[in-house]
Known about the structure:
Layout: E1 2-7, E2 13-17, E3 20-24, E4 45-47, H1 53-56, H2 59-66, E5 69-73, H3 74-82, E6 88-91, E7 96-99, E8 103-109, E9 126-132, E10 135-139, H4 149-153, E11 159-163, H5 172-182, E12 186-190, H6 202-212, E13 216-217, E14 225-229
Bound molecules: nickel (II) ion and manganese (II) ion.
Amino acid sequence: MAIRITWLGHSAxxxxxxxxxxxxxxxxxGNPLAPxxxxxxxxxxxxxxxxxxxxxxxxxELANRTGAATISNVEISAWLRNKGVETAHGQNSGGSCDYGxxxxxxxxxxxxxxxxxxxxxxxxPNGFVISAAGQHLYFAxxxxxxxxxxxxxxxxxxxxxxxxxxxxxxxxxxxxxxxxFIRPRFVLPMHYxxxxxxxxxxxxxxxxxxxxxxxxxxxxxxxxxYTLHT
Length: 230
Ligand code: NI
Ligand code: MN
């Protein structure tokens, strides 16, 4: 069993879970770091953490083209259904569900805001704990630091995906504190270097992760992949 993680720039990731393609926050159109055109992306499930345009991204087009089901909170799922997405699962914070016989997704809290691109109410912002192929992945979404990340860490997180870009989310210093709450084996940075306000020195971040936490940093270039063998 294996999970291949590919960074699409910003907070967009493609996961391949034992051959099942999953997209998270698929912001490609308008993303200056996007390594592939939208047309090249495949998905069985598309996870959307909150309503902002840099996270909903191309979810509607992708779901309509690929037939992928979306997974988000209930307000965003209703909005996606109105845009023609046929299967839009609407969970809420703290709830989990099995999908496709190979993955369980739990919505976690995130400290941020959430309105959809047309101004509609997006509900509460979320992160995800994705359990699949014997691994637990925690995608924090856009969030500030919060100490209850330690409760998420108690679940035994293998890989954490954390924003480091500051300005809209936690920055480098708070991401290091988050890692010490979460205690993952591996950590990937996200939500940085897309626009000048969220520029971050990712090699400095990686060095500090290695020296100040117990996690191994995984820094990918856009389009780059890391495979987690289980
Ligand atoms: Ni946001
Ligand atoms: Mn964002």
